[in-house]
Design a protein that fits this description.
This protein is α/β, with parallel strands linked by helices. The chain is built from 14 helices and 14 strands. A hairpin with a 5-residue loop joins strand 2 (47-48) and strand 3 (54-55). The longest helix has 19 residues, at 233-251. The structure holds glutathione (GSH). Residues 39-42, 82-83, 101-103, 149, 152-154, 176-177, 194-195, 198, 222, 224 line the site of glutathione.
Length: 337
Protein backbone atom coordinates (compact mmCIF):
# COMPACT_ATOMS: atom_id res chain seq x y z
CA UNK A 1 0.00 0.00 0.00
CA UNK A 2 2.73 2.39 1.09
CA UNK A 3 4.73 1.46 -2.02
CA UNK A 4 1.68 2.16 -4.24
CA UNK A 5 1.23 5.56 -2.63
CA UNK A 6 4.94 6.24 -3.07
CA UNK A 7 4.72 5.37 -6.80
CA UNK A 8 1.65 7.62 -7.19
CA UNK A 9 3.41 10.54 -5.48
CA UNK A 10 6.50 9.99 -7.62
CA UNK A 11 4.39 9.90 -10.79
CA UNK A 12 2.77 13.21 -9.79
CA UNK A 13 6.17 14.79 -9.21
CA UNK A 14 7.51 13.55 -12.54
CA UNK A 15 4.36 14.54 -14.47
CA UNK A 16 4.23 17.87 -12.63
CA UNK A 17 7.82 18.53 -13.55
CA UNK A 18 7.28 17.84 -17.25
CA UNK A 19 4.12 19.99 -17.26
CA UNK A 20 6.02 23.14 -16.22
CA UNK A 21 5.61 25.51 -19.17
CA UNK A 22 8.73 26.78 -20.91
CA UNK A 23 9.76 30.28 -19.97
CA UNK A 24 10.52 31.96 -23.24
CA UNK A 25 9.84 35.46 -21.91
CA UNK A 26 12.31 34.93 -19.08
CA UNK A 27 15.04 33.64 -21.36
CA UNK A 28 14.45 36.52 -23.81
CA UNK A 29 14.76 39.02 -20.94
CA UNK A 30 17.84 37.31 -19.48
CA UNK A 31 19.50 37.30 -22.90
CA UNK A 32 18.61 40.97 -23.43
CA UNK A 33 17.26 40.45 -26.93
CA UNK A 34 14.67 38.57 -28.92
CA UNK A 35 15.73 36.04 -31.56
CA UNK A 36 13.42 36.29 -34.54
CA UNK A 37 13.40 33.92 -37.54
CA UNK A 38 12.82 35.79 -40.81
CA UNK A 39 13.12 35.12 -44.56
CA UNK A 40 16.40 35.17 -46.44
CA UNK A 41 15.33 38.41 -48.08
CA UNK A 42 11.85 39.26 -49.24
CA UNK A 43 11.24 42.91 -50.14
CA UNK A 44 8.56 44.52 -47.97
CA UNK A 45 8.39 41.63 -45.51
CA UNK A 46 11.91 40.95 -44.26
CA UNK A 47 15.00 42.12 -46.09
CA UNK A 48 18.17 44.05 -45.27
CA UNK A 49 17.50 47.79 -45.75
CA UNK A 50 19.74 50.56 -47.07
CA UNK A 51 21.83 50.75 -43.90
CA UNK A 52 22.00 46.96 -43.65
CA UNK A 53 19.38 46.82 -40.88
CA UNK A 54 16.47 44.39 -41.34
CA UNK A 55 13.24 46.07 -42.46
CA UNK A 56 9.74 44.97 -43.45
CA UNK A 57 6.29 43.97 -42.31
CA UNK A 58 7.47 40.75 -40.62
CA UNK A 59 10.50 42.55 -39.18
CA UNK A 60 8.25 45.24 -37.68
CA UNK A 61 6.38 42.49 -35.86
CA UNK A 62 9.65 41.40 -34.21
CA UNK A 63 10.39 45.06 -33.42
CA UNK A 64 6.93 45.43 -31.83
CA UNK A 65 7.64 42.44 -29.57
CA UNK A 66 11.00 43.94 -28.57
CA UNK A 67 9.34 47.31 -27.92
CA UNK A 68 6.75 45.63 -25.67
CA UNK A 69 9.39 43.63 -23.77
CA UNK A 70 12.42 45.96 -23.64
CA UNK A 71 10.99 49.35 -24.58
CA UNK A 72 13.56 49.14 -27.38
CA UNK A 73 12.65 47.81 -30.85
CA UNK A 74 16.30 47.32 -31.78
CA UNK A 75 16.81 44.52 -29.28
CA UNK A 76 16.27 41.79 -31.87
CA UNK A 77 18.68 39.34 -33.48
CA UNK A 78 17.42 38.26 -36.91
CA UNK A 79 18.03 34.74 -38.20
CA UNK A 80 17.41 34.36 -41.96
CA UNK A 81 15.83 30.98 -42.70
CA UNK A 82 14.87 29.12 -45.86
CA UNK A 83 11.41 27.61 -46.13
CA UNK A 84 12.85 24.17 -45.36
CA UNK A 85 14.77 25.30 -42.27
CA UNK A 86 12.23 27.56 -40.60
CA UNK A 87 10.14 25.19 -38.44
CA UNK A 88 13.12 23.09 -37.31
CA UNK A 89 14.78 26.31 -36.13
CA UNK A 90 11.72 27.00 -33.99
CA UNK A 91 11.48 23.43 -32.65
CA UNK A 92 15.18 23.33 -31.75
CA UNK A 93 14.84 26.65 -29.87
CA UNK A 94 17.38 28.49 -31.99
CA UNK A 95 14.73 31.20 -32.40
CA UNK A 96 12.01 32.52 -30.04
CA UNK A 97 9.48 33.31 -32.74
CA UNK A 98 9.19 32.76 -36.48
CA UNK A 99 7.98 35.85 -38.34
CA UNK A 100 8.55 34.73 -41.92
CA UNK A 101 5.64 34.83 -44.38
CA UNK A 102 4.50 31.43 -43.13
CA UNK A 103 1.06 30.00 -43.75
CA UNK A 104 -1.07 28.73 -40.87
CA UNK A 105 -2.12 25.14 -41.67
CA UNK A 106 -3.49 22.26 -39.64
CA UNK A 107 -0.59 20.00 -40.64
CA UNK A 108 2.02 22.41 -39.35
CA UNK A 109 0.34 22.75 -35.96
CA UNK A 110 -0.49 19.05 -35.57
CA UNK A 111 2.79 17.55 -36.78
CA UNK A 112 5.38 20.09 -35.73
CA UNK A 113 4.26 21.08 -32.18
CA UNK A 114 4.18 24.71 -33.23
CA UNK A 115 1.27 27.13 -33.04
CA UNK A 116 0.36 30.14 -35.13
CA UNK A 117 -0.37 33.04 -32.79
CA UNK A 118 -2.29 35.23 -35.26
CA UNK A 119 -2.85 36.04 -38.92
CA UNK A 120 -0.98 39.26 -39.54
CA UNK A 121 -1.49 39.15 -43.33
CA UNK A 122 -4.23 37.35 -45.26
CA UNK A 123 -2.73 36.24 -48.55
CA UNK A 124 -3.40 33.75 -51.34
CA UNK A 125 -1.29 31.96 -53.93
CA UNK A 126 -0.92 33.25 -57.45
CA UNK A 127 1.24 33.13 -60.56
CA UNK A 128 3.64 35.47 -62.29
CA UNK A 129 4.29 35.01 -66.01
CA UNK A 130 6.29 36.83 -68.70
CA UNK A 131 3.95 39.15 -70.65
CA UNK A 132 5.40 37.70 -73.86
CA UNK A 133 3.65 34.37 -73.13
CA UNK A 134 0.24 36.05 -73.58
CA UNK A 135 -1.31 34.07 -70.76
CA UNK A 136 -4.26 35.75 -69.01
CA UNK A 137 -5.38 33.13 -66.51
CA UNK A 138 -4.01 30.22 -64.50
CA UNK A 139 -5.80 27.37 -66.35
CA UNK A 140 -3.91 28.44 -69.49
CA UNK A 141 -0.75 27.18 -67.81
CA UNK A 142 -1.49 23.60 -68.98
CA UNK A 143 1.68 21.68 -69.83
CA UNK A 144 3.83 24.62 -68.74
CA UNK A 145 6.71 24.44 -66.25
CA UNK A 146 6.18 26.31 -63.01
CA UNK A 147 9.00 27.32 -60.65
CA UNK A 148 8.42 27.44 -56.92
CA UNK A 149 10.23 27.05 -53.61
CA UNK A 150 10.39 23.64 -51.93
CA UNK A 151 9.01 23.12 -48.42
CA UNK A 152 6.22 25.63 -49.00
CA UNK A 153 2.45 25.45 -49.21
CA UNK A 154 2.92 26.86 -52.73
CA UNK A 155 4.37 23.54 -53.86
CA UNK A 156 1.45 21.56 -52.36
CA UNK A 157 -1.26 23.92 -53.67
CA UNK A 158 -0.04 23.63 -57.25
CA UNK A 159 -0.75 19.90 -57.19
CA UNK A 160 -4.32 20.57 -55.91
CA UNK A 161 -5.02 23.28 -58.43
CA UNK A 162 -3.98 21.35 -61.51
CA UNK A 163 -5.64 18.17 -60.25
CA UNK A 164 -8.91 20.04 -59.72
CA UNK A 165 -8.70 21.50 -63.20
CA UNK A 166 -7.62 18.15 -64.74
CA UNK A 167 -4.69 19.88 -66.34
CA UNK A 168 -1.09 18.61 -66.70
CA UNK A 169 1.76 20.77 -65.52
CA UNK A 170 5.43 20.44 -64.62
CA UNK A 171 6.88 21.87 -61.47
CA UNK A 172 10.51 22.75 -60.74
CA UNK A 173 11.26 23.31 -57.06
CA UNK A 174 14.24 25.12 -55.58
CA UNK A 175 15.56 25.34 -52.02
CA UNK A 176 15.69 29.15 -51.96
CA UNK A 177 13.61 31.96 -53.42
CA UNK A 178 16.73 33.29 -55.11
CA UNK A 179 17.36 30.03 -56.98
CA UNK A 180 13.72 29.73 -58.00
CA UNK A 181 13.61 33.31 -59.22
CA UNK A 182 16.89 32.97 -61.11
CA UNK A 183 15.49 29.92 -62.88
CA UNK A 184 12.37 31.90 -63.81
CA UNK A 185 14.33 35.00 -64.81
CA UNK A 186 16.62 32.81 -66.90
CA UNK A 187 13.67 31.32 -68.80
CA UNK A 188 13.98 27.82 -67.31
CA UNK A 189 10.28 27.87 -66.41
CA UNK A 190 7.23 29.55 -67.88
CA UNK A 191 5.67 30.76 -64.64
CA UNK A 192 6.59 31.45 -61.03
CA UNK A 193 4.14 30.60 -58.25
CA UNK A 194 4.01 31.84 -54.67
CA UNK A 195 1.93 33.96 -52.28
CA UNK A 196 0.62 36.96 -54.24
CA UNK A 197 2.32 39.46 -51.90
CA UNK A 198 5.62 37.76 -52.64
CA UNK A 199 5.03 37.81 -56.39
CA UNK A 200 4.68 41.60 -56.19
CA UNK A 201 7.91 41.79 -54.20
CA UNK A 202 9.86 39.38 -56.39
CA UNK A 203 8.69 40.93 -59.67
CA UNK A 204 10.42 44.16 -58.64
CA UNK A 205 13.74 42.35 -58.33
CA UNK A 206 13.65 41.01 -61.91
CA UNK A 207 15.77 42.71 -64.60
CA UNK A 208 12.71 44.17 -66.38
CA UNK A 209 9.73 44.09 -63.96
CA UNK A 210 7.39 45.60 -66.56
CA UNK A 211 7.88 42.51 -68.75
CA UNK A 212 6.12 40.32 -66.15
CA UNK A 213 2.55 40.21 -64.86
CA UNK A 214 0.85 38.73 -61.82
CA UNK A 215 -2.22 36.83 -63.02
CA UNK A 216 -5.56 37.68 -61.35
CA UNK A 217 -6.20 34.07 -60.20
CA UNK A 218 -5.81 33.33 -56.50
CA UNK A 219 -5.75 29.56 -55.98
CA UNK A 220 -5.48 29.18 -52.19
CA UNK A 221 -5.88 30.72 -48.76
CA UNK A 222 -2.56 31.74 -47.22
CA UNK A 223 -3.11 33.18 -43.75
CA UNK A 224 0.40 34.36 -42.86
CA UNK A 225 1.51 35.00 -39.31
CA UNK A 226 4.05 34.51 -36.57
CA UNK A 227 4.42 31.12 -34.90
CA UNK A 228 5.87 29.84 -31.65
CA UNK A 229 6.39 26.49 -29.91
CA UNK A 230 3.33 24.92 -28.29
CA UNK A 231 4.97 24.53 -24.88
CA UNK A 232 4.64 28.10 -23.66
CA UNK A 233 1.13 29.59 -23.43
CA UNK A 234 2.40 32.81 -21.82
CA UNK A 235 4.72 33.48 -24.75
CA UNK A 236 2.01 32.54 -27.22
CA UNK A 237 -0.26 35.12 -25.56
CA UNK A 238 2.38 37.84 -25.82
CA UNK A 239 2.90 37.19 -29.53
CA UNK A 240 -0.84 36.90 -30.23
CA UNK A 241 -1.82 40.03 -28.28
CA UNK A 242 0.98 42.12 -29.77
CA UNK A 243 -0.76 41.70 -33.12
CA UNK A 244 -4.21 42.28 -31.61
CA UNK A 245 -2.99 45.40 -29.78
CA UNK A 246 -1.78 46.92 -33.05
CA UNK A 247 -5.07 46.12 -34.79
CA UNK A 248 -7.11 47.47 -31.86
CA UNK A 249 -4.98 50.63 -31.91
CA UNK A 250 -5.84 51.17 -35.57
CA UNK A 251 -9.52 50.54 -34.87
CA UNK A 252 -9.49 53.07 -32.03
CA UNK A 253 -7.56 55.62 -34.10
CA UNK A 254 -4.46 55.51 -31.91
CA UNK A 255 -1.20 55.99 -33.83
CA UNK A 256 2.38 57.25 -33.50
CA UNK A 257 1.31 60.80 -34.26
CA UNK A 258 -1.43 61.11 -31.65
CA UNK A 259 -0.30 58.76 -28.87
CA UNK A 260 0.36 61.65 -26.44
CA UNK A 261 -3.18 62.98 -26.93
CA UNK A 262 -4.58 59.45 -26.72
CA UNK A 263 -2.97 59.14 -23.26
CA UNK A 264 -5.36 61.89 -22.13
CA UNK A 265 -8.43 60.18 -23.62
CA UNK A 266 -11.42 59.46 -21.40
CA UNK A 267 -12.65 56.60 -23.63
CA UNK A 268 -12.53 53.43 -21.54
CA UNK A 269 -11.42 51.20 -24.46
CA UNK A 270 -8.51 53.53 -25.29
CA UNK A 271 -7.59 53.76 -21.60
CA UNK A 272 -7.49 49.94 -21.32
CA UNK A 273 -5.44 49.67 -24.53
CA UNK A 274 -2.87 52.11 -23.20
CA UNK A 275 -2.72 50.59 -19.71
CA UNK A 276 -4.34 53.62 -18.03
CA UNK A 277 -7.01 51.32 -16.63
CA UNK A 278 -6.74 47.63 -15.76
CA UNK A 279 -3.54 45.62 -15.51
CA UNK A 280 -3.59 43.70 -18.78
CA UNK A 281 0.09 44.24 -19.60
CA UNK A 282 1.10 42.92 -16.17
CA UNK A 283 -1.15 39.89 -16.68
CA UNK A 284 0.80 39.08 -19.84
CA UNK A 285 4.09 39.31 -17.89
CA UNK A 286 4.88 42.73 -19.41
CA UNK A 287 4.42 46.29 -18.11
CA UNK A 288 1.19 48.34 -18.07
CA UNK A 289 2.46 50.57 -20.89
CA UNK A 290 3.33 47.69 -23.28
CA UNK A 291 0.99 48.97 -26.01
CA UNK A 292 2.19 52.57 -25.62
CA UNK A 293 5.72 51.28 -26.25
CA UNK A 294 4.62 49.40 -29.39
CA UNK A 295 2.68 52.33 -30.84
CA UNK A 296 5.32 54.96 -30.05
CA UNK A 297 8.19 52.97 -31.46
CA UNK A 298 6.66 50.86 -34.22
CA UNK A 299 3.10 52.04 -34.87
CA UNK A 300 -0.37 50.57 -35.21
CA UNK A 301 -1.30 47.88 -37.79
CA UNK A 302 -2.15 50.43 -40.48
CA UNK A 303 1.14 52.29 -40.05
CA UNK A 304 3.13 49.06 -40.29
CA UNK A 305 1.15 47.90 -43.34
CA UNK A 306 1.42 51.20 -45.21
CA UNK A 307 5.10 51.74 -44.46
CA UNK A 308 6.16 48.33 -45.72
CA UNK A 309 3.73 47.03 -48.31
CA UNK A 310 0.97 49.64 -48.71
CA UNK A 311 0.20 52.29 -51.31
CA UNK A 312 3.18 54.50 -50.46
CA UNK A 313 5.68 51.61 -50.47
CA UNK A 314 7.45 50.06 -53.46
CA UNK A 315 5.06 47.10 -53.37
CA UNK A 316 1.91 49.29 -53.38
CA UNK A 317 -0.43 46.46 -52.36
CA UNK A 318 -3.95 47.76 -51.53
CA UNK A 319 -5.18 46.83 -48.01
CA UNK A 320 -7.92 44.62 -49.57
CA UNK A 321 -9.01 41.85 -47.18
CA UNK A 322 -6.41 43.05 -44.70
CA UNK A 323 -8.57 46.10 -44.02
CA UNK A 324 -10.28 46.15 -40.64
CA UNK A 325 -13.52 44.20 -40.28
CA UNK A 326 -15.55 47.44 -40.03
CA UNK A 327 -13.93 48.79 -43.22
CA UNK A 328 -14.64 45.91 -45.58
CA UNK A 329 -11.81 43.57 -44.58
CA UNK A 330 -11.29 40.64 -42.20
CA UNK A 331 -8.65 41.94 -39.79
CA UNK A 332 -10.48 41.65 -36.47
CA UNK A 333 -8.96 41.78 -33.00
CA UNK A 334 -10.72 40.54 -29.85
CA UNK A 335 -11.21 43.30 -27.29
CA UNK A 336 -8.78 44.22 -24.55
CA UNK A 337 -10.84 43.90 -21.38
N1 LIG B 1 3.46 31.06 -47.28
C1 LIG B 1 4.04 29.90 -47.88
C2 LIG B 1 5.24 30.24 -48.76
C3 LIG B 1 6.36 30.77 -47.97
C4 LIG B 1 7.71 30.92 -48.73
O1 LIG B 1 8.75 30.53 -48.20
N2 LIG B 1 7.69 31.47 -49.92
C5 LIG B 1 8.90 31.70 -50.62
C6 LIG B 1 8.47 32.07 -52.00
S1 LIG B 1 9.45 32.99 -52.94
C7 LIG B 1 9.68 32.80 -49.90
O2 LIG B 1 9.13 33.64 -49.29
N3 LIG B 1 10.97 32.78 -49.90
C8 LIG B 1 11.75 33.81 -49.26
C9 LIG B 1 13.02 33.25 -48.73
O3 LIG B 1 13.25 32.04 -48.82
O4 LIG B 1 13.77 34.04 -48.18
C10 LIG B 1 4.43 28.90 -46.82
O5 LIG B 1 4.32 29.20 -45.63
O6 LIG B 1 4.85 27.79 -47.16
Amino acid sequence: MATKRFVAVLACIVLGATAVPAQTLKSVKDRGRLICGVSQGLLGFSAPGEQGQWVGFDVDFCRALAAAIFNDPSKVAYVPLSANERFTALQSKSIDVLSRNSTWTLGREAELAIVFAATTYYDGQGFMVPKALNIDSAPELADKTICTQSGTTSEANLADFFRNNRVNYKVSTFATAEEALNAYGGGRCDAFSSDVSQLHALRLTLRAPADHVVLPDVISKEPLGPCVRQDDPQWQNIVKWTHFAMVNAEELGVNRGNIDDAMKSQRPDIRRLLGLEGNYGEQLGLTGDWVVRIIRQVGNYDEVYERNVGAASKLAIPRGINSLWDRGGIQYAPPIR
